[in-house]
Amino acid sequence: MKTVHIGSIIRQKVNESGISVKNFAKMLHCSESNAYSIFKRKSIDSELLVLISEILGYDFKSEYGEPCNTGQDCIVLIRTNKAKLNELREDKSIDFISFENYSK
After folding, report:
1. What residues have CB less than 8 Å from 3, skipping those under 6 apart?
2. What is the pLDDT of residues 53-101, one digit of tens each?
């Protein structure tokens, strides 16, 4: 997997969308300063990335290289806790090619 500064990409996609940072923050149910802090992040919680993807209508997993060749949907976990990782492992529709567990 290639190295990606996800916050920079999110900022770029917000700019391209024409959505103001103020409105982006409202859609995320956070403060404007929190939205700016997202733009500085090198990594991001997977659930937050899914929400941002829905808001911006952009598939951020494409930033991480080639799609999975397993015939199943590919999920890129940016950062998640052990409980969420275990829950995802139980989902038989997900094919884990590689994953890491990040502790908070």
Report:
1. none
2. 999 998 887 776 655 454 545 545 445 566 666 666 666 555 554 444 4
Identity of the amino acid at 90: E
Neighbour tally for 104: CB within 10 Å: 7
Query: Any alpha helices (H) in 1-104, and if so which ranges?
Result: 6-17, 21-28, 32-39, 46-56, 82-90
> Position of tokens 């890491």?
100
pTM > 0.85: yes or no:
no
69 neighbors 97 (Cβ within 8 angstroms):
no
pLDDT digits (tens, 9 = 90+) for 18-33: 999 999 999 999 999 9
- What's the CATH code, domain 1-98? 1.10.260.40
